[in-house]
């Protein structure tokens, strides 16, 4: 049986590259925005160069023009989320220590809302405008409180470390189904401690686990701030050999 050309179905025509919609040009901002989208939908562990290349319909090698490695990419994602920290809490009539604690509590809350981001923040080194604004705000509050410049320079690092570690610890506990049982076991062990072998634990009793997480966090920040204010930097010469062991 012969089929005439007129009866044959038309062959599909392939679209030329000119007919396809042009991909947006790659940019640092676009890469970071894609990284944030992937993190929010799939988790930070999925924010890799290969996954982003697929998201942006390009090759992984093209991303390295803008971002050096995955660690830098995660730092950039952290930088984006730091824009949600309430720096406005630094102003107002409250004592400078309370305002500083409020800013750090907001920072902790931002990390706490994203457990993977909290863990990444322990090693990530953001350097964008949001991070600089956070550091500047904390330093301004320490200056307002009369903290000497050298002590403020080191103190702000300790404050951010405490806030970051706290967020990472508590976000991990919330994600662990057995965390509640572990806490109950600890409380029970403290209550059952013998006054003969653990007199100080017995004397403090339930006060060891008293207070809300927010109350304890604010107290912790105030304790670090007061220590920063009262502790001068050691001026004794030390071995500065970078190959030596840490103190």
UniProtKB/TrEMBL annotation:
<keyword id="KW-0805">Transcription regulation</keyword>
<dbReference type="InterPro" id="IPR050109">
    <property type="entry name" value="HTH-type_TetR-like_transc_reg"/>
</dbReference>
<keyword id="KW-0804">Transcription</keyword>
<feature type="DNA-binding region" description="H-T-H motif">
    <location>
        <begin position="48"/>
        <end position="67"/>
    </location>
</feature>
<dbReference type="InterPro" id="IPR036271">
    <property type="entry name" value="Tet_transcr_reg_TetR-rel_C_sf"/>
</dbReference>
<feature type="region of interest" description="Disordered">
    <location>
        <begin position="1"/>
        <end position="23"/>
    </location>
</feature>
<dbReference type="Pfam" id="PF00440">
    <property type="entry name" value="TetR_N"/>
</dbReference>
<dbReference type="Pfam" id="PF02909">
    <property type="entry name" value="TetR_C_1"/>
</dbReference>
<dbReference type="InterPro" id="IPR001647">
    <property type="entry name" value="HTH_TetR"/>
</dbReference>
<dbReference type="GO" id="GO:0003700">
    <property type="term" value="F:DNA-binding transcription factor activity"/>
</dbReference>
<protein>
    <submittedName>
        <fullName>TetR/AcrR family transcriptional regulator</fullName>
    </submittedName>
</protein>
<dbReference type="GO" id="GO:0045892">
    <property type="term" value="P:negative regulation of DNA-templated transcription"/>
</dbReference>
<dbReference type="InterPro" id="IPR004111">
    <property type="entry name" value="Repressor_TetR_C"/>
</dbReference>
<feature type="domain" description="HTH tetR-type">
    <location>
        <begin position="25"/>
        <end position="85"/>
    </location>
</feature>
<dbReference type="InterPro" id="IPR009057">
    <property type="entry name" value="Homeodomain-like_sf"/>
</dbReference>
<dbReference type="GO" id="GO:0000976">
    <property type="term" value="F:transcription cis-regulatory region binding"/>
</dbReference>
<keyword id="KW-0238">DNA-binding</keyword>
